[in-house]
Amino acid sequence: MSTLNQKVVLITGASGGLGAEMSRAFAKAGARVVVHYAGRKEPADAVVAGIGKAGGEAFAVQADIRNSAAVKALFDAAIAEYGRIDVVVNNAGIMVTKMIKDFTDEDFVNQVNINLNGAFFVLREAMARVADNGSIIDISTSVNRVPIPTYGPYGATKSAIEHLTKVASKEVGRGIRVNAVSPGPVNTELYRNGKSAELIARQAAMNPFNRIGEPEDIAPVVVFLATDEAHWISGQVIPVNGAMLS
Amino acid sequence: MNSLKGKIALITGSARGLGKAIAERYAALGADIVLNYSRDKVAADETVSNIEAMGKIDIVVANAGIELVETPVTAFTEEQFDHVFSINTKGSYFTMQQGAKHMVGARRPPAISSTSCPRRSATAVSP
């Protein structure tokens, strides 16, 4: 029996892409899933319905994570429904890809507001409210390891999150582990948006498997980090990129 | 939970310690295990011919290694240096080489190399 059986997992940004797949994977492992979304209610409800149809348990909660009071209310709602939170996957984020010179003030504020401020609020709340021996997983990226044009601010927010992850792992106590997962390119709307087929093919050719990642390649690693078997991994940034870079 | 049923795993340095723990865990997950307790390339090749009899390897854990601690940089002899590198680096290299040779054609070949945590702080040992 999975050590995640009946554990409560909150996943932010779970109405699509990686968040939705992680929700399904956790539910399949027996966890009860809180599917957080910001604006995409129907897709979030569809994730919940899909989990229910597969015999699992989930419910959706709306919150704008740029607002710390809303983040607190999100955790309140999760605990009101399921009584506790064991795992938080800090996944919600946006990606604005422009050269630094083309970034407007608004672009930058939007990018930082969700990816840094929002993720920080979720991390801080998780550190306070996750049950003893729980697990917090921050979703990072691989584009902050190499300086790629147009990924400056996005990469910067994720580098910030990785540092917070490591410090959080030292501060939190109560047996809680805090780690980050750094996916390579993953075939989601966030990734595909604005990319030509040629660019995607070029990125696919950068690893020996000759394809970009799928959410199904990333989700099992996040699920593993939440299990008891991973209890001695903390403060780490785990890259999952099919040998694209190391 | 993931099963390793039907998989064959080679774990070097698996008579005791970390290697033994890995072997026991893999066995509990259903894998067939090839254990290794020797330290040199000749013995590694011998182990590999045992595996050839099984027909395939799915997982290789290049775990065998030694530590030479509390000997300061200034006191290391050439012999000690060669000894550490021979087992830890050369041994792991040829283990992984043999593993890679036997995994050609596998759809999802996992190969895991185990190394101990690199020291982040230097401890001075007074002479």
What does this structure look like?
The complex is a heterodimer of chains A (246) and B (127). Chain A has helices spanning 17-28, 41-53, 68-82, 105-129, 152-171, 189-192, 197-204, 215-226; strands at residues 8-11, 32-37, 57-62, 87-90, 135-139, 177-183, 237-240. Chain A is α/β, with parallel strands linked by helices. Chain A has a single domain, classed as Rossmann fold (3-Layer(aba) Sandwich), CATH 3.40.50. Chain A has a seven-stranded parallel β-sheet with strand order 3-2-1-4-5-6-7, sandwiched between helices. In chain A, helix 5 (152-171) links the parallel strand 5 and strand 6. The radius of gyration of chain A is 17 Å and the shape is globular. With 127 residues, chain B is an alpha/beta fold. Helices cover 40% and strands 12% of the residues of chain B. Chain B is built from three helices and four strands. In chain B, helix 3 links the parallel strand 3 (59-62) and strand 4 (111-113). In chain B, helix 2 (41-54) packs parallel to helix 3. The chains are: A alpha/beta (246), B alpha/beta (127).
